[in-house]
Amino acid sequence: MDFLRVLLSILLPPLGVFLQVGLKGHFWLNILLTLAGYVPGIVHAVWIIARR
Description:
Layout (H helix, E strand, L loop, with lengths): L1 H10 L1 H9 L3 H12 L1 H14 L1
């Protein structure tokens, strides 16, 4: 399941974070990071998934 989340995080970072934590603070932070730049959103999403 983590592999699928990482793959989704590469394609659409907020979706991967949403599947991991739901609508909590990390999800909204990831949306902001993805809007600021695609790569920071990916890095944050993979970090969240790898940490849990």
